[in-house]
Amino acid sequence: MGKSLVEMAADLVQSQCASKAMNTEEITLALQSTFNALQMLQAGEAKLQAGTSEGAGVVGTAPGMAPEKSIQKNKIVCLECGQEFKMLSPKHLRSHGLTGREYREKWGFPLRQPLCAKALSERRKKAGKDRGLPENLRKAIAKRKKSGQAKKAGNDKK
């Protein structure tokens, strides 16, 4: 089990006494200030842990990271919690109470920006091209346009 704050403060002040001569008044003041500092640190740590464990999404835990730098070659860093992934899944974003669209809007990404590592995005793009998706998409769009024009022509005759 870990040491109590009093024990930690005593150890720190004892080390300080070993390096410099201190009278009882200085030792007392040093103990009090060290104990208070440790208490503040512990309270801050507890707040941080409570915020992340409740799924509150502590903003800024990816310290000072610019959104455009969060999407890297082999990973994407969640700007809400600071965790690294290959892809920000809808399930992970839900843990922060966000959808993909809300995440993109909040952090200033274009709505068509893939929320995955650049390498993964490139692999998917290449696989789609290999399967002929761009050509099939062009054909489907052309077919839709033709059927839309045919419907308009039919409505004009009435």
Offer a concise description of the structure:
With 158 residues, this protein is mostly helical. Helices cover 64% and strands 3% of the residues.
Explain the layout of strands and helices:
Blueprint: H1 5-19, H2 24-53, H3 67-70, E1 76-77, E2 84-85, H4 90-95, H5 100-107, H6 118-130, H7 133-157
Antiparallel strand pairs: 1-2
Helix pairs in contact: 1-2
| SS summary, helix count | 7
The ordered string of helix (H) and strand (E) elements is HHHEEHHHH
How far is it from the N-terminal to the C-terminal residue, by CA?
A: 86 Å
Number of strands: 2
Oligomer: single chain
- In percent terms, what proportion of residues is strand? under 5%
Largest beta-sheet details: 2 strands, antiparallel
Low confidence ranges = 53-61
Report the mean per-residue pLDDT as an integer: 83
**Gyration radius, in Å:** 29 Å
CATH architecture of the largest domain: Orthogonal Bundle
CATH topology of the largest domain: Arc Repressor Mutant, subunit A
Assign the structural class, choosing from mainly alpha, mainly beta, alpha/beta, alpha+beta, or little secondary structure. Answer: mainly alpha
InterPro entries: ROS/MUCR_sf (IPR041920), ROS_MUCR (IPR008807)
Biased composition (Basic residues): 140-149
Family: Belongs to the ros/MucR family.
Protein name: MucR family transcriptional regulator
